């Protein structure tokens, strides 16, 4: 397998940290054993955890005001895959890449698949794009796409989604994620019922062409770019559309796409209870759809989301929704942010495995709120870093991914090989 970070460097770095890690891991193992938790079983689950990286995440993001390009940014899908391979090599938690079409459309899909193969990378959910006009496109999406008042515009958006599925099949993907920015900026501008009916009619046509082993994931978002109403603005609209459409049409939860302070973990529980929770876009936020790094603002919320997922997986061990990071890296090196964020999501997952569910059920049943919340906090407050480090170490990743990455000089090499394109200004975060 091709590896862009020198393995001797990785080995030397790990060697300098190995004895400290082993003693931390042993100490944590002894502590967990006192609660009848087998650290090895948790380690195996940590090693099996994976989350997809979005192709657009390895470029520097931006805001509606400006974008400040970083050095050595990838200029095409092949260079994006190079960066994704570095993230995977060091973190060992991100074996799949989620593509965005048309941004990542390859001239030769087989060549792209082979390019990913050399790094051991797979392709996760495909993302369609009908929120901006493409070159040589007949109809404009200015007033909507899958929900547009014009049948011709809807047909064009439907055809694009079907095309993305066909491309995804050649790449080995198994899901299509649909997010539309359709909505309105003024009261009265759009007929609520008609636009939602047109959306459902459109996605049914896409679903009818979906391969049998594929899922269709509907991503909702409360606002932006539409600032008065959005057609698929909440999990309720997403659930209704998914339910109308078919069994393999599911809802996708992007953590940043809700009103502030909404109880996202409860939405997770609701959608899962009725078999409609299909996937996640992980990020964090303080005010709106901030697309900050996962776990950087509210790590407890991230833990509570995984607490629900682990609860669901106890009943249904084969349940595995699509996990992807969806963040905008404006002030950090995107490779560092994605490695760190993948570990933060993995950390929330590992902590959720440590919750004493028997005790929690007892405290819920006997109406003991103090001890119920303390049971969650007991798991949340444990420092599971030795488990994450050991998972990476045993999988030939880096005990300290960011230190190893910085030591490797990869970004400096990219800065030489990939000069900044002064004309590139787009960011593209959904
Ligand atoms: Mn998203």
From TrEMBL:
Note the superkingdom of the native organism: Bacteria
Q: Does the keyword Manganese apply?
A: yes
Xref: SUPFAM superfamilies? Xylose isomerase-like
Do the record's keywords include Metal-binding?
yes
UniProt GO MF annotations:
isomerase activity
Q: Which UniProt keywords apply?
A: Isomerase, Manganese, Metal-binding
Q: What is this protein called?
A: L-rhamnose catabolism isomerase
Q: Please tell me the species this chain comes from.
A: Rhodanobacter aciditrophus
The beginning of the lineage is: Bacteria, Pseudomonadati, Pseudomonadota, Gammaproteobacteria, Lysobacterales
């Amino acid at each position: 397998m091709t590896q862009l970070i020198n393995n001797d460097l990785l080995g030397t770095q790990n060697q300098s940290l190995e004895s400290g890690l082993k003693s931390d891991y042993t100490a944590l193992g002894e502590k967990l054993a006192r609660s009848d938790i087998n650290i090895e079983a948790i380690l195996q689950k940590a090693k099996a955890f994976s989350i997809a990286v979005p192709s657009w995440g390895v470029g520097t993001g931006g805001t509606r005001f400006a974008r400040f390009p970083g050095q050595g940014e990838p200029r095409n899908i092949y260079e994006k895959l190079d960066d994704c391979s570095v993230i995977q090599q060091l973190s060992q938690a991100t074996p799949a890449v989620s593509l965005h079409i048309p941004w990542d459309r390859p001239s030769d899909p087989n060549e792209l698949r082979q390019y990913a193969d050399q790094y051991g990378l797979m392709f996760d959910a495909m993302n369609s794009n009908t929120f901006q006009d493409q070159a040589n496109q007949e109809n404009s999406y200015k007033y909507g796409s899958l929900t547009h008042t014009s049948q011709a515009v809807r047909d064009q958006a439907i055809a694009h989604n079907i095309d993305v599925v066909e491309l995804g099949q050649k790449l080995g993907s198994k899901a299509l994620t649909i997010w539309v920015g359709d909505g309105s900026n003024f009261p009265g501008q759009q007929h609520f019922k008609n636009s939602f009916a047109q959306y459902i009619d459109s996605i049914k046509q896409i679903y009818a062409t979906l391969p049998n082993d594929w899922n269709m994931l509907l991503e909702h978002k409360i606002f932006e770019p539409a600032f008065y109403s959005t057609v698929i603005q909440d999990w309720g609209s997403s659930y209704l559309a998914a339910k109308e459409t078919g069994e393999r049409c599911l809802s996708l939860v992007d953590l940043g796409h809700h009103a502030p302070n909404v109880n996202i973990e409860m939405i997770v529980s609701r959608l899962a209870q009725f078999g409609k929770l299909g996937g996640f876009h992980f990020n964090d936020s303080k005010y709106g759809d901030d697309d900050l790094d996962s776990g950087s603002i509210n790590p407890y919320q991230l833990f509570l989301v995984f607490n629900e997922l682990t609860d669901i997986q106890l009943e249904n061990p084969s349940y595995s929704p699509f996990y992807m990071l969806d963040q905008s890296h404006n002030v950090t090196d995107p490779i560092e942010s994605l490695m760190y964020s993948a570990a933060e999501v993995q950390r929330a997952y590992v902590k959720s495995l440590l919750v004493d569910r028997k005790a929690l059920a007892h405290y819920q049943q006997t109406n003991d709120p103090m001890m119920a919340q303390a049971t969650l906090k007991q798991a949340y407050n444990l420092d599971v870093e030795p488990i994450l480090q050991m998972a990476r170490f045993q999988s030939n990743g880096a005990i300290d991914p960011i230190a190893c990455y910085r030591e490797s000089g990869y970004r400096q090499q990219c800065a030489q090989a990939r000069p900044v394109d002064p004309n590139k200004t787009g960011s593209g975060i959904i």
